[in-house]
Amino acid sequence: MSRYFALIDGNAGAYGVVFPDLPGCTAMGKTMDEALANAAESLRDWAEVTEEGGRKIPRPRNLEALRRDTEVKSALAAGAGLATVALVRESGRPIKANLSIDSGVLAAMDEEAQRRKLTRSAFVELLARTMLSKVA
Question: How would you write 27-76 as a 3-class SS string?
């Protein structure tokens, strides 16, 4: 799994996200959290379209290289923030996984999954997606 740096900027009610390493890959949202969640989706879709077009996805630059980029320097100086966004690819194929979880935690998860009308597997996937979309 690759993580790409994203620049996030804006004001309450309107935030934008750009990926300096991925031209044209952008997202927006009313809150920073929404913008970053949308950025994860945009990143996945951008990667898929890029590969379908026969092009390679650029490797993410490290933080030091990114900070030397004049456009990134300028955006940061103007108040943009820097976040990382994970590229989580979907295969469309479920796979069985054997997990060991504390029985009390599992009971709480099952109760919450039932409250949300989800299966245990769907709930675990939701938790994983949520955690993977969080800023590291």
Answer: EEECCHHHHHHHHHHHHHHHHHHHHHCCCCCCCCCCHHHHHHCHHHHHHH
- Closest by CA to 59, choosing from 41, 47, 71, 45, is 47
Quickly count: other Cβ atoms within 10 Å of residue 108's Cβ: 11
The secondary structure of residue 22, as a DSSP letter, is: S
Burial class (CB in 10 A: 0-12, 13-18, 19+), 39: buried
Domain that holds residue 132: 93-136
CATH number, domain of 49, equals 3.30.160.250
The tens digit of pLDDT for each residue in 109-131 reads: 999 999 999 999 999 988 887 77
User: Residue 83: in which H helix or E strand, if any?
Assistant: strand 81-87
- Prediction pTM value: 0.75
**Statement to judge: residues 134 and 86 lie in one domain:** no
